[in-house]
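Sample intake — Multiple sugar transport system permease protein
Collected from: Paenibacillus methanolicus
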Amino acid sequence: MLGRLNFSTQKKIIIIAFVAIPVLLLLTFAYYPALELVRLSFTNWDGMSPTSDYIGWDNYKEVFSNPEIFGVFKNNFAYFAVGIVQNIVAIYFAVILNGKLRGRNFFRLMLFLPYILNGVAVAYLFSYVFDTTQGSLNFLIGHLGFASDTSWLGNESMINYTLASIGFWRFMGFNMVVYLAALQAIPSDIYEAAAIDGAGGWKSFLHITLPNLYKIIELNLFLTVTGALEVFDLPYIVTKGGPAGASETFVMKIVETAFQFNDYGLASAMSVVLLAFVVVLLSIQRYLLNRGGQD
């Protein structure tokens, strides 16, 4: 049938067909569920009943007025703070391993390996590392002559930073590889010209390296912010939100509300609030970074 059509018409049909399939999949598995999530957030659906009642903004009022729900956002801050440090360390290693260092490929591999490990396995591994009585970390600290009875997973003030350090260990190598790829795209002639003009390593970093990494830094900060707000696996596996809810994150609260208390309407409202937070924070981040880039 296509053979009877001219080349221009055939081309248009093929393009439309190739575009229509991914658009249909996107609408089916992304936009429709998102719209359904918003609709459910205005109901009291329990997840099983064939019907649900419209209750207006009650679920959203519950999210913002209940400190047990909205208050868990403070536990996510540790992941954001450690994520910022993680990006700084990743840039540091990327700059070092981009130079003429002997064995640099080996060090790149060793730093990247944690990223390919299964997240559940990593969580279980570090649950033994941070164990108070038989953990390898306290064992090492004790042999160095320091107090070795620190409760890394039982202290409410440090539990989130302890868990965030696991993410630091796992994802720093990935960020380093991303920065390393960006560094290798910078022409070496620029550094040679800067060296001839008398620019040292620090000035070259500030005026050549950082400006060329700007977009990559923006991308990794995007991943850092979203990852900090949506963290779930580490605290769920290692601490189950303990002690006394000190390590419970907002996503854990959503899952608990939906599957333990069967309040899918409230859980949907919490999901919409989380999505709105991500959009707002990323918009602020993009505005500040673009403003800084123009300056």
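Post-analysis note: The radius of gyration is 25 Å.
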